[in-house]
What does this fold into?
Amino acid sequence: MATAPFEPRVVTNGYAVDPSSPLTPGQVDLVHRIVTSAGRFVSEGLMGAEYYRNWVTAAGTPGQYVEILGLVAMLTQVDTFHIVLGLPLRALPTPVRTDVRPSGQIDPAAGPFTGWTPTIRVSDASGLVAETYARCRPSNRAASAPPSDPGNIMKQLSAIPQDHAQFTSHAMVMYKRQRDVPGGVVSERQIELVAALVSKINDCSY
It folds into this structure.
C-alpha cells in the first residue's frame, strides 16, 4: 500500500506555498491534503497513520494537527452548504482578538483510541467534552441512560474540547437536528440516502 512521507517543500496540484502566508509549508500541506483527498486518510489507513506520525515529527504537535483538522473541516462544512444552496461563499471574519494564538495543546485524557489522532473516550470524558458527547445522544434515548457511543466521527476533535463542541454544533444544525424532527421537509430516510451517496462520491470509507 502506498505511503505518504512528509515533504518539507510543498507543491500541491501546481500550488506552491505563498511566501507571505503565516502558515508553514507543513501546515499548508496538511490543509491541502484534508481539502483535496480527505477520503484517502481513512481508506488508506497506513497512508494516513504514517503521514500523521511524520507530520508531528517534522511539522508540528498533535494538538496543532487536530486544530488545523478542525478548522478546515468546519470551514468546509459552511462552504459546502453555501455551494449547495447556490449562495456566495461567506468572507472570513476578522478575528475578534489578535493576541490569541492556537495553543497546540491537547486534553490530558486524549489518546490513540479511535485512530491515529488523539481522542477522548466517552468513559474518560469530563467537562465540555462530556457535555458535547451528551448532545450527541440519540433523541429516543432517555436522558438518564448511560452515555452512548456517539460514533468515531463525533469523537475526532475531542482532544481540543472547544473545537469539538463547535464542530458538533455544526453537525447538529446541518444533519442530526433534521433527522430528529418528525414530519420534516426531508425524511430521515432521504437524509441517510443523500448522505450515503455523497459519502460514496467523495470516497468516504464510512
